[in-house]
Amino acid sequence: MWRGYCDFYRVQLPDEVTDRTWKRILDPDSQIMCIVAEVDGQVYGLANCVVHENTFETQAVCYLEDLFVAPGARGHGIGSALIEWLRNAMRAEGWARLYWVTRSDNHAARRVYDRFTRADGFVRYVVRQK
Asked: Measuring CA to CA, which residue among 60, 63, 49, 58 is closest to residue 101?
């Protein structure tokens, strides 16, 4: 269920991307981290984040790159709990902000996100190597 799926892009990721991501998550020197929501040893959700410097703040910021809750566990507050954990980490670690993007048509997720903050109106552009 967790291997190689990116909810934001709605695509399967190549195994080498997933493997590299997990290696970076498990590397204590990496800026990438993952938090999980689990009950009785069963994982129901996860959040992959990148803590990084930027040019608009004096403190680091945290980019929530992927928030995933198992389909059968959605609607039970797991996504909200993961975001709340990150908000608490933001305060404790001194990050200037926590931010993320989502698809404009991801209405279920946006209902959760709107409880924390409103979308800021930015439009994302992506340039890829050919």
From this structure: 63
Q: Which domains does the chain have, with CATH numbers?
A: 5-113 (3.40.630.30)
Mean pLDDT, the chain cut into blocks of 10 residues (130 residues total): 51 86 95 94 95 96 95 94 98 97 92 95 90
Please give the model's pTM, rounded to 2 decimal places: 0.88
Which residue type, as a one-letter code, is found at position 107? Answer: H
Q: Please provide the DSSP assignment of 9-71 as one string.
A: TTEEPPHHHHHHHHHHHH-TT-SEEEEEEEETTEEEEEEEEEEE--SS-SS-EEEEEEEEE-G
Question: In this structure, what token pair is assigned to residue 128?
Answer: 């890829």
